[in-house]
Design goal:
Structural class: alpha/beta
Number of strands: 9
Strand content: 15-25%
Helix content: 40-55%
Strand order of the largest sheet: 5-4-3-6-7-9-8
Shape: globular
Radius of gyration: 20 Å
Largest sheet: 7 strands, mixed
CATH architecture: 3-Layer(aba) Sandwich
Order of helices and strands: EEHHHHEHEEHEHEHEEH
């Protein structure tokens, strides 16, 4: 589900807003008095968002993925088709491995997937899929780009499902998310091939429009995507940049 960017937030159509209202925290606040007076057992009530999340959790297990986050990538791939056979794909923040496994299946045996994460990840690959190289690295490590360049001559796609450890402060979490996105964008600019694709998680907030503009400076086309498998009440969205223009990055670096 794509949306319009307004004041740092993705705005969806009225139908989506109505569906989201049923799952937002306000819904539970309004429902509790009714639940109490009718004598219903709260544990037996099937809340809309819980059903959705249980559906994707169960689906991921059936399809042998370690996390339901895989569907946030699958939805984008089915709609925009940026993963193609034979590509090299860099997956930043890959743990527990769902995105890397999915990408390996799409790019096939002629492709390569490199997964990077602070946590050690070692999921077995599948026959007919791309080989997956798991690297245990901090994305802020200055040696990371050099390490990748030594072994692979760039990538056609850079993915990131990274999110900061949440603190309970919306402002602090948003700022850390923007810092991560900018770091991914910096790595992308140094490793992505011309006309390549960037797909990156971000938390909406005050600085979000500025980050989107930074992406637009490097890509011919930029969209803000809200997958159906992402919680409606969550500020989580994904930035999809297509048609990377390395010359724009070079000119940006040359400016005083």
């Amino acid at each position: 589900m794509a949306g319009r960017l307004v004041n740092g937030h993705v705005k969806t159509d009225q139908a989506d807003i109505c569906r989201a209202d049923a799952a937002c925290p306000g819904f539970f606040c309004l429902a509790w008095p009714w639940i109490f007076f009718t004598g219903l057992n709260p544990e037996k009530i099937e809340y809309p968002m819980r059903k959705v999340q249980d559906y994707y959790f169960t689906k991921a297990k059936k399809e042998n993925y370690p996390a339901r986050s895989v569907f946030k990538l699958e939805e984008a791939q089915k709609k925009h088709g940026f993963l193609k056979s034979g590509q090299r794909v860099l997956d930043l923040g890959c743990h527990p491995g769902s995105w890397s496994l999915y990408a390996a299946g799409i790019v096939g045996s002629r492709g390569v997937v490199v997964g990077v994460d602070l946590q050690k990840t070692d999921m077995p690959g599948q026959k007919g899929h791309a080989e997956i190289h798991w690297l245990c690295y901090d994305v802020y490590d200055d040696d990371l780009v050099g390490r990748l360049k030594k072994q692979w001559p760039g990538f056609q796609v850079v993915l990131s499902d990274m999110a900061p450890r949440t603190t309970g402060s919306r402002y602090a979490d948003h700022q850390q998310s923007m810092r991560l996105v900018r770091r991914v964008l910096e790595i992308t600019a140094r490793l992505l091939h011309e006309n390549g694709t960037f797909y990156c998680k971000a938390f909406q907030g005050g600085d979000f429009p500025a980050v989107v503009q930074e992406c637009k400076a490097l890509f011919r086309k930029v969209k803000v995507v809200k997958p159906d498998s992402s919680r409606r009440e969550s500020r989580e969205v994904f930035i999809l940049g297509q048609g990377f223009q390395p010359r724009r990055y070079s000119r940006k670096q040359e400016k005083p």
